[in-house]
Amino acid sequence: MTVRMPLILALVLVAPAALAQDKAPAKKLFCWQEKGQRVCSDALPAEAVNAAREEISATSGLRTGGVDRAMTEEERADAAIEAQQRQMDAAAAETRRRTDAAMLLSYRNEEDLRRVFSERVAIVDNNVRTARYNAVSLREGLVSLLQTAGNQELAGRPVVAELATNIRQRHAELVRTRRLQHSFETQRAELDVEITDIMERYRAMKGTSPDAVEEAAGQTSAPSRR
User: Fold this and answer.
1) What's the CA gap between 170 and 139, in Å, rounded?
2) pLDDT for 169-181, tens place per residue?
3) For all residues of the chain together, what is the average pLDDT?
4) Residue pair 194/100 in contact by the 8 Å Cβ criterion
5) What pLDDT is recorded for position 58?
6) Which residues contact 104 (CB under 8 A, 6 or more apart)?
7) In CA terms, which of 30, 130, 192, 197 is 20 to 30 Å from 96?
8) CA dist 63 to 58, 106, 140, Å?
9) Quick one: how far is CA 15 from the chain centroid?
10) Beta strands 53-57 and 28-34: pairing type?
C-alpha cells in the first residue's frame, strides 16, 4: 500500500492538467481572397471581416468551417423580396390545402368560399398600394434632386459630393421599390387566377354553373314586393 500511494497521487495531480490541455481551443487559420490571391493568416484583419473565408485547423491542415461574405444592401433587399415571396407562396399553398380538403363540407355557397381569400386579397392590395405610393414619392424626390444638380451645372458651379451621393442612393431605392411593386402586382394577378380556378372547381363539385350562381345572387339581392 505504501508503494502504490505516490503513483495514485501522481495520477490525481496529472489528470486535471491533461483535461485542461484537452479543453484548450485549437488554433486555426483564416484563408480568404485578396486582390485575386489566396491569403491565410492566424488573425483576421478588419478589411477581411466581410469577405468569404475558410477556417483551417493549424494542427491537421484540414478545413473545419467557413463563412460566406457579407451581403450588399441590394442583395439584402433581394433576399427580403424572396422571403416575402416564399411567405406568400406558403400562404397560397395552405389556402389550397384547406379549400381542397373541405370545400364541399365547409362552404354552403360561393360567398363563404370567397371569405377564405379576403385576408390575402387585402394584404396583397395593401402591398401594391404602398409600393406604388413609395415609387411615386421616390421618383418625385429624385426629379427634384436632379433639377437641383442641373441648376448648379447651368450656373457654372460643380455638383457637390453630398448631392451626387443622394442622387445615387435615391435612384437605387427607386429601382428596388419598382422591383418590389412589380412583384406585388404579379402576386395580385396570380391570386385572381387562383381564385377563379378555385371557384370553377367548386362549381364543378357542387354541380352549379356561373349563370345559376348569378341568378341566385340576383334573387337574394332583389327587394321583396308587397
Assistant:
1) 8
2) 999 999 999 999 9
3) 76
4) no
5) 67
6) 205, 206
7) 130
8) 10, 57, 52
9) 51
10) antiparallel
